[in-house]
Amino acid sequence: MKKKIIRWLRIFLNYEWWVANIHKFKNANNLDNCTLLNDADTIDYLLNTKKSFIRWGDGETNILMGGDLSFQEYDKELARDLRKLLIDSQNGTKLLLGIPHRYLSVTKSEFHKQDKRFVGLWYKSRYIFDKYVLENNIYGDAFVFRKESPLTRETVSQLWSKKKIILVSSKSEHIKKIYNANQGNGIIQILCPSKNSYSYLDDMYQKVKEAINNSVANGNKISDIMVLISSGPGGKVLAHQLINDGYKVVDTGHYFTWKA
């Protein structure tokens, strides 16, 4: 009960939460002049560029608003790092940000015609992206790895099929699912906690860096290595750090649980 009271007080006192609740009655226009890639175009874009990919969802928005997730408690430093990620993604970096644009780019009336569950889930994200988005930016599809996506395993696995993979995930069975798609190339798995992974950020970062250094010492080029991360909001911060270090990273979310 005490934790719930603290959580609601934190949200209640969060300025952006109040603004978001007012903003849901407005049109979100900042995406009008942006390029919004669908799931197939997102894969093609990543194959044809050197960019990494991080998906932004309702969980990340909830953390910014002071909320908790079932697998990640609120942390003010996590909220700070997610906001930094969001801002960096607007500045021509090596990062393609995936956003749920099917809920963010529609008009106010179209948005409120949708299932009330989705309205309640995404109205805060509409405010966040209306605040932070720059015109003429390019965004991928945040749902590209979800089970609802029609893309085949063969299509998606093109992203990593020829790479030396470092897989950061909380489930040991994920490495088995990715092995066949990787055509015999090396795979290193780094297991991470299934809850509150942000608390272990430094440890995960050091383990990934060590794995990369060992791979390079064995004769692989940095360009041959890809880090796949499935570790909630904390994993997105880890991905952002590694991208800034010059590594290729893809935030796969629950893909290896749902579809691989």
Give the tags.
single chain, 260 residues, alpha/beta, Rossmann fold, 2 domains, four-stranded parallel beta sheet, 13 helices, 46% helix, globular
Q: Which oligomerization state do the chains in this entry correspond to?
A: single chain
| Class by SSE composition | alpha/beta
Distance between the termini: 39 Å
Integer count of domains: 2
| Unreliable runs | none
Radius of gyration: 18 Å
> Main sheet, how many strands, which sense, barrel?
4 strands, parallel
Mean of the pLDDT scores? 82
Number of DSSP E strands: 8
Report the portion of residues in β strands. 5-15%
Instruction: Give the CA-based shape.
Output: globular
> Largest beta sheet: what is the strand line-up?
1-4-3-2
Q: What string gives the helices and strands in order?
A: HHEHEHHEHHHEHEHEHEHEH
Portion of residues within helices: 40-55%
- Number of helices, where a helix is a run of at least 4 consecutive DSSP H or I residues: 13
Structure explained in plain terms:
This protein is an alpha/beta fold and 260 residues long. It has 2 domains: 2-141, no CATH class; 153-258, Rossmann fold. The protein is built from 13 helices and 8 strands. The chain has helices at 2-12, 15-23, 39-48, 58-64, 76-88, 101-104, 108-112, 116-132, 153-156, 174-179, 201-217, 232-244, 255-258; strands at residues 35-36, 52-55, 95-99, 138-141, 164-169, 187-191, 225-230, 248-251. The strands form 2 sheets. A 4-stranded parallel beta sheet has the order 1-4-3-2, with helices on both faces. A 4-stranded parallel beta sheet has the order 6-5-7-8. Strand 5 (164-169), helix 10 and strand 6 (187-191) form a beta-alpha-beta unit. Helix 2 (15-23) crosses helix 8 and helix 5 (76-88) packs across helix 12. The relative contact order is 0.17. The mean pLDDT is 82.
